[in-house]
Design a protein that fits this description.
The protein has 290 residues and is of the alpha/beta class. It contains ten helices and twelve strands. It binds zinc ion.
Length: 290
């Protein structure tokens, strides 16, 4: 199986600063969709426009042909270069209303969700021209369209995009990798969002932001693994909260990290935010049912 020829995945490398101050190599995928006009799904971190524009020129297209930038959510590695892309191309910027505030005011995003090295990853705020909600269809021309699927959990305004023609599902950060650190605002919403994506018939390729393209059965396996991973974390957090001598959130986080066998440095505020969301669902020991 192959990726539909109109879709150009761009793997963008960057670095983050971990809680010990060390630099950690990461990557994020952005996607160009070629048609009469060009649609860009996510912009990558600050300065990623160079990689995006180089690819356009190498393939005989130009940055000015980007008519729309869809931001799957507000996080730095998705909106970091959005302002530069918009300035160079004159494109419109679209996102879900629940993440719009953090895109239009990056300083507020940093205040609400302190990511180390934030301003190395984000070149600035960008104005949003179009709000996308569940069920919206984005016409790509040539008989192709993208359906917007609201997949909250990773962030409240996270969206996935379904291109039925070609069976391509763009899931951004909605599906955590079993080997990775899950980042989410709400564990139950994350589970429900993945279950919804898992129910889509005809997925031939899963195009996420933090994984290689996954085809056919493998795409479904990745979704199942993501679900099991969230359930395991949820069970561990509930146990850790029960055995902690005080309801201190960082202490619950430390115990969770320990029991999951993760490096101690993972007991940081960003991951704590994810873990603690399980405490809102203490009445549900099995998130995958119901
Ligand atoms: Zn994200």
């Amino acid at each position: 199986m192959t990726i539909p020829s109109a879709i150009h995945p761009l793997k963008i490398p960057f670095e983050i600063i971990d809680p010990t101050g060390a630099s950690v190599p990461r990557f994020v995928y952005a996607y160009l969709i070629y048609g009469e006009e060009i649609t860009l799904i996510d912009s990558g971190v600050a300065s990623s426009e160079r990689i995006i524009f180089d690819h356009l020129r190498e393939t005989g297209r130009s940055p000015e042909e980007i008519s729309r930038l869809i931001l799957t959510h507000a996080h730095p590695d998705h909106m970091g270069a959005a302002r530069a892309v918009k300035e160079a191309s004159g494109c419109s910027v679209a996102c879900h209303p629940a993440d719009k505030g953090w895109i239009e005011d990056a300083g507020q995003q940093l205040a609400d969700r302190p990511v180390p090295g934030f301003w190395d990853l984000v070149a600035g705020s960008v104005g949003v021209d179009e709000e996308l909600v569940d069920g919206d269809r984005i016409d790509l021309g040539g008989g192709q369209d993208l359906e917007v699927i609201h997949t909250p959990g990773h962030s409240s305004g996270s969206i996935s995009l379904w291109m039925a023609e070609g069976g391509a599902l763009f899931s951004a950060d909605a599906i955590p990798l079993a080997r990775g650190m899950p980042i989410y605002d709400d564990v139950l919403s994350s589970v429900r969002s993945i279950q919804r994506l898992r129910g889509i018939e005809g997925v031939r390729v899963l195009l996420s932001a933090w994984d290689e393209p996954r085809f056919g059965e493998e795409a479904r396996r990745i979704m199942d693994e993501g679900l099991r991973h969230l359930q395991r974390i949820h069970a561990v957090v509930i146990r850790a909260a029960g055995s902690a001598p005080s309801p201190d959130k960082m202490e619950i986080c430390r115990r969770t990290v320990q029991e999951l066998g993760l490096p101690e440095a993972m007991a940081n505020p960003l991951n704590c935010r994810s873990f603690i969301s399980s405490l809102r669902h203490l009445d549900r020991s099995d998130l995958l049912r119901g």
